[in-house]
Amino acid sequence: MENTQDLSACVTKVQANVRQWEHRLQSEQGGPDAFRQAVGELRAALDTIGRAGFQRLAQACEVADDTLDGNGRWYRFKQVVDKRWLTLWGTVVVPRRVYQEDHGGPSRLPVDERCGMVKRFMVPELERMTAFLGARLVPAEVEDSLGQVLLEPPSRTAIQHVLTDVGQCAEEGAGQLELALQDAAPLNAEGDTLVVSWDGVTVPLREPAPKRGRPAERPTATDTDTAPTAWKEAGVGMVATYLTPLDPEAEEPQRVDVRYAARMPETKMATLVNGLVDRTTRALQQGGYDHRVVLADGKREIWRIVDECDVFEGFTRILDFYHAAQHLSMAAEHLFGKASAKADRWYRSWRHKLRHTPNGVAGLIRSLSYHRHKLRKRSPRYRQATTELGYFRNNRDKMEYARYHASGLIISSGPVEAAAKTIVGHRLKRSGMRWTRQGGQQILNLRVQVQSRRWDAFWNWYLQQTTPTTTLKRAA
Questions:
Q1: Residue among 170, 173, 146 at smallest CA distance from 158
Q2: Which tens digit of pLDDT belongs to each residue from 380-395?
Q3: How far is CA 43 from each of CA 5, 17, 29, 75, 191, rounded to the nearest angstrom?
Q4: What is the DSSP code (8-state) at residue 228?
Q5: What's the rounded Cα separation, in Å, for the pair 110 and 104?
Q6: Euclidean distance between CA atoms 109 and 99, whole angstroms
Q7: Are 449 and 455 in contact (CB under 8 A)?
Q8: Full-model pTM
Q9: What is the DSSP letter of 262?
Q10: I need a surface site. Which of 154, 250, 348, 367 has the fewest CB within 10 A?
């Protein structure tokens, strides 16, 4: 790469080149092709200036002393070592003076410390860009995307290293990170309703699992009883604030702010739930809310956890209406048969009543019980209808949808289900993907910050964790 030391010469060259193109474009030689060529040369010249300026700034951070004081430990100059740093304008070779104690031990490089480049090969500005894109795209797509705007994009391997380092830093400092983000980017408490919700979504793990499906009719020596991919349930949750509408019949609740969390598969989603409990506690300390809601589907494990957590005492428990409607549809099929006109009429009638009639779930339970008694006992349809009847009986206290709607509350867990798709599904469930739990969590740690719109605050925290405070001083 060309010598970028002489910044003044680079600037002079750009000025001369622009003047040349001005004359050409003002003449009859001008046109779209000529203009694009001029812009291309300008961009290349500005990259040259960027590299020259960056090198000058890095050299300004160098020291020339033979001995430096590092908190009472003396470091002597040993040699000069060049390092290739990847910048927004391409690779820049930076000569760095290396210092070391007389008895040996770790080396110190003042330029690296003063420029925030300790253990870095990529400048933080480019590292941030890479991590942000990597939270949304696979490394190959990040490389292609950056290649459209940068002279020299990082390689796929370099991109993967960045994602691993940043995601793991967030994992290891999760508790400290959350406290820092709470101060730097707190949940907007202007809404009058606090909503907590979580759900599961399966992800492909790079772990053996029992092979499913019909066994091969002619097995070979390589056939096994296990498959290389295990599908396990990851967890996604949110703590959000909503503003109830003035006219609930004509308007929907408006979300003010949201904080997402996502965890790779784990027993009973313990880490996810504990994090949501902590966020809920802080949200309640930060502001008062007229309404407090826990919204989820009908999984018993979720509601068992809600009952056991003191922070949810006094919260309105709402079972997602669309999950309830799905069970209502299955009940109609069991009572009247699949694709029957009577099943369709019964379903549509009770779906409307369940949604709009006060205490509609009580009438639904009576109707379901009445029609179930018309079925032959111990028949499959009777047993299945009994299961659905139990579902509505067990969850009737969470199905007062007319009352919830009249209060302007959200009754659908669609937002957290959408988050499960965007945070987990769109990035971890592409064709052919399989993940380790650690690797998947590193990506999720980045995606939740992007989706929660806390990326700026998160990145500032990350830089603080990975930029040691310079302690080297000139000897007295």
A1: 146
A2: 999 999 999 999 999 9
A3: 19, 12, 21, 42, 47
A4: S
A5: 17
A6: 6
A7: yes
A8: 0.90
A9: E
A10: 250
